[in-house]
Amino acid sequence: MANFQNEKVMSIKVENIFLSYNNKEVLKNLSLEIKEGEIITLLGPNGAGKSSLLNILSGDLNADQGYVYYNDKEITKLSIQKRALIRSVMAQSQQIVFDFSVKEIVEMGWLNEVDPKYINQFDNAIQEILHKCDIGHLELRKFNTLSGGEQRRVHFARTLIQLWRDSNNSESRYLMLDEPNANLDLSHQVKMMNLIKRLSDEGVGVLLILHDLNLAFKYSNKIAVIKDGNMVACGCPRDIISKNILSDVYELPLNIELKKDKILINYV
What we know:
By secondary structure, this protein is of the alpha/beta class. Helices cover about 30% and strands about 30% of the residues.
């Protein structure tokens, strides 16, 4: 149970979204809601429309039809700056051309300079995030000298600092992460997912795109499955991680066995 104190649970949601590229339907009448304190994971094969849906939710892409709401307000009525204070996005690929240090990259996510009460908390907040993301020892390294997994953790830290608030703040916040654990070793995958879970327990709404079915099952409150731009299923992990649904979606015979908070998958 999330420990945030808002009486009304707020959300980011899309309703009846349609999107086409070059006369090809990418998303077809999709609706989805990310609630505060909830982790919802998108599953589906490559090209299913997952990243397009995330980009519409974040406001980085306009749908052909449908609506996007941030806490019951249409996204078109919110400035880019206001959206950035509400939600933070980590894309699949983020290239850094200039030779910035790790610390400089993370600092780019800081938005709280507009609020005087946070001015004196900048250094502590940066160090807190560097520590949580296990990159404190890398802060003076040049970003482009890092491994792919290390770079991924730096981008994750930059995404988190954008939403940093002190413990007394109850504003709605949302994380949207597109394959955040790509290139990470097993240990850092688990550390990242545990950190995401702690943030959701504090009231942050989280949208994840994952390919790892075990991580999706273990950490998600809800799972939505997309195939060919259609919402195939959406619900609690035990209902969604099933032989019938996933065998059809991935077009691969699967045998799935559920054991408490783990799943065993055999490819037939």
